[in-house]
Amino acid sequence: MSDMTFKERFVRSLERKKVDKVPVCSVTQTGVVELMDITGAKWPDAHYDAEKMATLAISAHTVAGLEAVRYPFCNTVMAQALGCTISEGNLDAQPQLLDSPCKKKKDVSGISIPDDLLENERISTMLKATEIINDRLSGDVPVVAGILGPAAIACYLCGVKNYLNWCITAPEELGEVLNIGTIACTEYANALFEHGADAVVVIDSESGPDLFPPPLFESMIFPHYRSITSDMKGHSILHICGDATDILDKMAVSGFEGLSIEEKVDLATAEQIVGNRACLIGNVSPAFTLLGRSAEEIKNEAKQCIEDGAGILAPGCGLAPHTPIENIKSFVAARDEFYGEKGLM
Known about the structure:
TIM Barrel; 9 strands
């Protein structure tokens, strides 16, 4: 078992099978400025150029030591493909939403999924980047793609204010937009699998309790997750920011193999709720710990995450652009130190 490749360890962890040690990686964004400087693949170009996207993503593994290659570095790909206006971003700021196509309830009828969705420039870039990453890797490293989930897509298409209001005042209209998000999400995920992704992370923080009323999660969001996971043709992970404790039980039976949770969720509590129904991923704080704390503090928090039940050790959310590479290396080293201290290596 000690001869496991990074990919074998990652996949076995998602499948809740025995591993020699938990993987240490990020299933959320990994583009940091130091890596951009080393590789020459910088934002904003690395969001839109497949070659640069692949180069920057791979460097988080080859330079910083993370045991997976995760891309892209923003959450705007599908939103832009479905008609949102998106800012380009800059060196240390991700692309952001500028305008949504669905400003009123009557606009919902005008939203549809293009027949040539997968030919959209940004989606094509992602598919090409997937191929480039696989061509450059030995096959021993998991390739992990991030995409928006149905709630996030709905929020982008309708705007935050409408999204929050319509879950109460116009549930049918919001349901139509969620359905569009579900269909687009599934089609996109399977295209990524076909091009070589090993796992797809569905980023759907807008379904979490910080934004969406937990009592409505089971009726309005959960069925969409079941639909997505039943139709996905590869390994699946769900990421929700904020304190998702109130919906963890339903997340655990949504069909996603991995649940990526932020540090606002107590990992030991999450482990008690989820049990062996899904692999818990997380949840070292990227903003408070990985960005600016000492190597010792980073290692202590990371080791505690493993102790508390992390099946895959990872940041609780995307890395801040100015996270030092040395801090990422300390994060990776913490995993090996943990097993050494336990006499398991």
